[in-house]
Amino acid sequence: MPNIFLIGPMGAGKSTIGRLLAQTLKRPFIDSDHEIERRCGADIPWIFDIEGEIGFRDRESAIIDELTQRQGVVLATGGGAILRPENRHHLHQRGLVILLDVTVRQQLERTRRDQSRPLLQTENPRARLEGLRKERNPLYRKTAHLILQTDRRPPRQVMLDLRQRIQQHLNQTTATIVTAHGAS
Ligand SMILES: Nc1ncnc2c1ncn2[C@@H]1O[C@H](COP(=O)(O)OP(=O)(O)OP(=O)(O)O)[C@@H](O)[C@H]1O
Ligand SMILES: O=C(O)C1=C[C@@H](O)[C@@H](O)[C@H](O)C1
Ligand SMILES: [Mg+2]
């Protein structure tokens, strides 16, 4: 089984679904946001405060480069992990990249009680999420091998669907390789 990398907007469920998927596949689960916090000894709002978004993005790029070199892991990335070209390249080349997508409406619902996302600590989170979506959607889409909508379904359902889509994708890829090599 290749590495599974989850990308997508804040509140799409990358951390939640990633953990469930790793459990059922019996793979190690890593969350790049948590790993940055653990190593830094500070939470993300604090890192944004002290080092600015650029400081956080530098830490994020270093951790993505490192974690994508592991084997057989499920990795949940942060919502902005696709912003830098080198991150997109590492993700796309070193694993199967799944975009968990979500509507802005659901994002608002899922993130409104949580103050851990500095980019949403604004007067108008809806406008911020819409702006981010416009800017990032093309980047998510060109980095992903598979796309899955996560609205209106509970996490376990999304995870089961995702597991099936991954299996289908891998079966198709294997079939193509076997055909290309002319195996009987
Ligand atoms: N399919 C779902 N249905 C309902 N709630 C969900 C679903 N997926 C995730 N959630 C809830 O939404 C919130 C955000 O989910 P999560 O932290 O997994 O998002 P994320 O994609 O990792 O966001 P971030 O990019 O900020 O790390 C959590 O409270 C989680 O329980
Ligand atoms: O969408 C983003 O830019 C972010 C999403 C979170 O996962 C964190 O990585 C951080 O809050 C920034
Ligand atoms: Mg997360």
UniProtKB/TrEMBL annotation:
Subunit structure: Monomer.
GO biological process, one term: amino acid biosynthetic process
Role played: Catalyzes the specific phosphorylation of the 3-hydroxyl group of shikimic acid using ATP as a cosubstrate.
UniProt-listed InterPro entries: P-loop_NTPase, Shikimate/glucono_kinase, Shikimate_kinase/TSH1, Shikimate_kinase_CS
Keyword set, alphabetical order: Amino-acid biosynthesis, Aromatic amino acid biosynthesis, ATP-binding, Cytoplasm, Kinase, Magnesium, Metal-binding, Nucleotide-binding, Transferase
UniProt-recorded name of the protein: Shikimate kinase
EC number(s) per entry: 2.7.1.71
NCBIfam families documented for this protein: PRK05057.1 (NF003456)
Pathway: Metabolic intermediate biosynthesis; chorismate biosynthesis; chorismate from D-erythrose 4-phosphate and phosphoenolpyruvate: step 5/7
Organism: Terasakiispira papahanaumokuakeensis
Keyword Repeat: no
Gene transcribed to yield this protein: aroK
GO molecular function: ATP binding; magnesium ion binding; shikimate kinase activity
Residues that, per the record, bind Mg(2+): 15
Cofactor list: Mg(2+)
Family the entry assigns: Belongs to the shikimate kinase family.
Broad enzyme group: transferase
Residues annotated as binding ATP: 11-16, 117, 153
Top-level taxon of the source organism: Bacteria
Catalyses which reaction(s): shikimate + ATP = 3-phosphoshikimate + ADP + H(+)
Cofactor binding note: Binds 1 Mg(2+) ion per subunit.
Compartments (UniProt record): Cytoplasm
Residues annotated to bind substrate: 33, 57, 79, 136
